[in-house]
Amino acid sequence: MTTTSGHSAGTAAWAAPVPARLRPGDLAALASIGLRTRKLRAGLSALGIAIGVAAIVAVLGLAASSSAALLAEIQALGTNLLTVTNGQTLTGTTAELPAAAPGMIARLPGVTSVQDTGTVSGVDVYKSPYIPSGETNALSVDAATVGLPAAAGTSLAQGRYLNAATEREPVAVLGAAAARRLGIDRIRPGMRIWARGQWFYLTGILNPDTYAPQIDSAVLIGFPAAEKYLNFDGNPSEIYVRTVNTPAVTTRVDSLLGYQANPENPNQVDVSRPSDALMAQADAKGALDTLFLGLGAVALLVGAIGVANIMVISVLERRSEIGLRRALGATRGQIRAQFLAEAILLSLAGGAAGVILGTAATAAYARGHRELLVIPPQAWAGGLAAAIIIGALAGLLPAIRAARLSPTQALWTV
Q: How many H helices and E strands in the chain?
């Protein structure tokens, strides 16, 4: 019994030691050493991940920032603006709105404001009479009512708008784009423009109009002045209708506008809601965002291939290290975990750099366009999660190959 016990004790004394447990902190430090010793290669491999994540963060951030700015603008301007324009006749020619249309529309219940413009055809505007007639700058001349800015959703950037006195005189107000094309950035005393052999004095410049961009490229004069100096017939071409800011009221007025504006030919009247057009424009931009997200995914794929490549090469170059660690007691699982952690850490570094780059690009764009900076949580969180998943998938096969090397096979190359 004693001999047996001694033999058992001796066997226990010479048993293979249990390998030490690799703690997460030690694993992270070990993985970082492998990357720090090959900085240039690791940086180039992480660059593909960074570009892909930056593209995704930037696209989602820009979309969210633009959407937030658009929704804020729509909320500020309201969704209770309706526009009435002249449609087409049965023969395909442009129809004409009756001169009494604005007054008839104003009688509808729920309508709070009615303002209108009328296109003055055959009139070009120049900064001076010495400018060649062909250089019209694609500007239109419109007769306008005195309450147009508030109804159309714009305001004055410079000077004064038309009033009850100036609407009868050769006085003009420029839309934002019209002022820019004429090279006029501010209103000075005595400033004039030339139209059909007549000087018109400038009194104001409007801010850009989100709901009615056609006003931006227009030169606005009063209806009485247009009839007196430019032979305008007095018929409106576009009517801006503000209703009580209630969806039900706006919808009801919308359904009645065609008949109220032109009772004899309601089918020759076009009615629209500018806020709906803006939402459709946002949806169209979403399709373009999908394209850029696809390009970001391609960049991530390229980055994943780069990570997989560097890990395969790393396993081949570090056979002696693998053999030495195995000889010192490291298990296959620890070797596998080491190389897998290196791949994940490499991709995570690229992902973090991509989030920073994407956020910086979004911030620069938002500041340049005076928009709120909005980075959706799914943008940066999704980018980092994608980087981790890519690192795990890209490093899995090299890690398995490294773990399969036996100590003698690995040390044979030393």
A: 13, 11
Which residue in this structure is represented by tokens 């658009």? 70
Residues 6+ apart with CB under 8 A from 41: 310
Which pair of tokens denotes residue 355? 């989030």
Asked if residues 255 and 241 have their Cβ atoms less than 8 Å apart, the reply is: no
**Which of 123, 146, 220, 135 shows the shortest CA–CA distance to 183?**
135
CA distances from 258 to 91, 99, 104, 369, 379 (A): 19, 14, 11, 38, 45
Say if pTM beats, i.e. exceeds, 0.85.
Answer: no
The one-letter amino acid code at 137 reads: N
323 with 405: CB under 8 angstroms? Answer: yes
Asked if residues 28 and 345 have their Cβ atoms less than 8 Å apart, the reply is yes
Instruction: Burial-class residue 236 by CB neighbours within 10 Å (0-12, 13-18, 19+).
Output: buried
Residue 56, SS3? helix
Phi, psi of 262 (to 5 degrees): -145, 80
DSSP string, 316-365: HHTHHHHHHHHHTT--HHHHHHHHHHHHHHHHHHHHHHHHHHHHHHHHHH
Place of tokens 């005076």: 370
Residues composing the chain = 414
pLDDT tens figures, 182-198: 999 999 999 999 998 89
